[in-house]
Amino acid sequence: MVRRFSVTFGVYALFLDALLVMASLYLANWVRPWMSTFPFVKELNDPQIPLPLYPVFAILWVGILLFFSVYDGRKNVAFINELLSLFAGTLFAGIASAGVLYFSFRDISRLLFLLFFTFTALLLLGWRLIWRRARRSQPEAGAERCVLIAGDGPIASQVGRKIIENRTFGLSLVGYAHDGTGADLPGQTRGGLAQVPALVREHAIDEVLIALEGADPKQVARLILELQLLPVKVWVVPEFFQLALFKAGLDEFAGIPMLDLRASAISEPQRIAKRTLDLLVAVPVLVIGLPVILLSGLAIWLETGRPLVFKQERVGENGRVFRIYKFRTMVAGAEQNADSAEWGRHKQRDDPRVTRVGRILRRTSLDELPQFFNVLLGNMSLVGPRPELPEIVARYEPWQHQRFAVPPGITGWWQIHGRAEKLMHRHTEEDIYYIENYSILLDLQILLRTVGVVLGGKGAY
Predict the structure, then answer these.
(1) Which has the higher per-residue pLDDT, 336 or 356?
(2) The pLDDT of residue 79
(3) What are the CB-based long-range contacts (under 8 Å, 24+) for 454-460?
(4) Residue 252 region, left (φ>0) first, then alpha (ψ -120 to 50), else beta?
């Protein structure tokens, strides 16, 4: 997370800040009576802070900090930016808290409030300083993003120098790919433009910057389409705006405004709200459902032995591959069959490979409970397009890659409109509809309708 905070980190930071605000209230409440021993401090008969203020202040503070972009990883790569946002948010939240007290509990001691404000400011700043220092002391835990620049003109040279000179961006310039001389480039030439996809694989490139001034638009378009098939971020100068496959976002890269051709279809605030909803649902489900998880695993073991959990690679947001989990519902090794329906393109009714326990798990959708661990890990969301098999994605048309503009989900628009009863080739259209109409309210609607679909057992086999 050197280059920018992840969304999951932003959500955790939000909850941690809320806890620290409440801890500061408790600490101030404990310290204030002790300070009455000083001659210049008045004795307080009842300094207790009312319990309702604890959640009110926590929500108030994190809401204001959210408004001041304290949890926006894109804006806070450099610590000075985060510090300025935190200072402004803390000051405004302190004023707002004083206003709340003025219109509610006016008997609260001013010294008590000052203690609370001081403790909160120190704690919010303190844990961030500790975290940043810990990250710097463990470079292997937050490796820099590897960048390949396609081009050899003035813009390519300028961006390369900025990456080299500004380590705070968390970027590492691997080199350049171009068909020219490359005489003035500050980095190493790795190959020609035709070799860009191979270079991405060879050097584990995370970001490709296309800076081909005056190049043939067809050549640039072909390069972009080739990169869309790889798990890599694609950046391009604004003159190529029309080549975005789904949504292009204007952003800063190494301090220079550019177009992100793999920009997420959802904004940063929407992403934080979505991630918060994921954690608020996934954690209770796993805690409350632990007995069901254990019983399901035991039933599978008693009937067919191990393994209990089925694991498989899937393609997620931005084309990145991850491992998905679910309870095994077929006989062991069924997925190795080319005609396997376990994770095949279309489920079949009365499949002979499905076990007795597996049929129950599928009918009740309990086989998907382990996917809540994917949600906790951050490679899946509660709602989104279903994660697809890499071999199927390899045969996608370019327009179908639009479905990777958001995180994949356990449920989605397709699942509540037919599930297994709808043919697989219709999935992409349903997923794109969801992406184009995304809102947190749509996620809530899909979750509520999913409950009805699961209880009805429609399409579950």
Answers:
(1) 356
(2) 73
(3) 454/364, 454/365, 457/363, 457/364, 458/418, 458/419, 458/421, 459/415, 459/418, 459/419, 459/420, 459/421, 459/422, 460/362, 460/363, 460/364, 460/365, 460/419, 460/420
(4) beta
Q: How far apart are CA 184 and CA 320, in angstroms?
A: 34
d(CA 66, CA 74): 13
SS3 237: coil
CB atoms within 10 A of CB 242: 8
**How much is the pLDDT for 419?**
53
Token pair of 151, please? 């081009």
Question: What is the three-state SS of 80-131?
Answer: HHHHHHHHHHHHHHHHHHHHHHHCCCCCCCHHHHHHHHHHHHHHHHHHHHHH
Mean pLDDT for the chain overall? 81
C-alpha–C-alpha distance, residues 434 and 361, integer Å: 27
pLDDT, residue 149, reads 93
With tokens 């001659």, the residue in question is 39
Q: What is the CB-side half-sphere exposure of residue 253 using CA atoms within 13 A?
A: 29
Report d(CA 124, CA 121) in Å as an integer: 5
Phi, psi for residue 233 in degrees, rounded to 5: -80, 140
Give residue 239's pLDDT. Answer: 54
Neighbours of 436 (CB within 10 A): 12
pLDDT in tens, 407-443: 999 998 887 875 555 555 457 778 888 888 888 888 9
Cα distances (angstroms) measured from residue 291 to each of 87, 303, 325, 382: 45, 18, 18, 21
SS3 content of the chain, % helix, strand, coil (to 5): 55, 10, 35
Closest CA to 454 of 421, 424, 422, 415: 415
The 3-state secondary structure of 308-343, one letter per residue: CEEEEEEECHHHCEEEEEEECCECCCHHHCCCCCCC
CA distance 245 to 258: 16
Q: What is the model's pLDDT at position 159?
A: 85
Q: Work out the percent of the chain whose per-residue pLDDT is above 70.
A: 79
